[in-house]
Amino acid sequence: MAQNCVTVTKCIVSCLLAGLFGLLSNLFVIIVIVAYRPMGEHITNLYLINQSLIDAGVATFLVLTTLLQVFEAT
After folding, report:
1. Contact 39/32 with Cβ under 8 angstroms?
2. Would 59 disulfide with which of 16, 22, 24, 64, CB 3.0-4.6 Å?
3. In a structure prediction context, what are the per-residue pLDDT tens digits for the chain, which is 74 residues long?
4. Which of 23, 16, 20, 62 is nearest to 8 (CA)?
């Protein structure tokens, strides 16, 4: 039983870390493209911003659902 708790804890921590890393890295991409004006002129970079927004949203939902599962279990 104790080993099962360790496995669940590792899964929760890895989901939180992956979500936070995904959120921060995608926000960084958006900030760089928006802050550096010449990059905002190309249509390809607008697609990159769009994809980064989608990825940041998915990462946010990963963190939120993981936290919701943790607080429901307690």
Report:
1. yes
2. 22
3. 555 777 888 888 999 999 999 999 999 999 999 999 888 788 999 999 999 999 999 999 999 999 998 888 76
4. 16
Cα 29 to Cα 20: distance, rounded to the nearest angstrom:
14
SS3 2: helix
Residue in 54, 48, 18, 42 with CA at minimum distance from that of residue 30: 48
Decide: residue 55, CB within 10 A, 0-12 exposed, 13-18 middle, 19+ buried: middle
Find all residues with CB under 8 Å of 25, minimum gap 6, and list them.
none
Tokens representing residue 8 in the block: 């669940």
Number of helical H runs and strand E runs in the chain: 3, 0
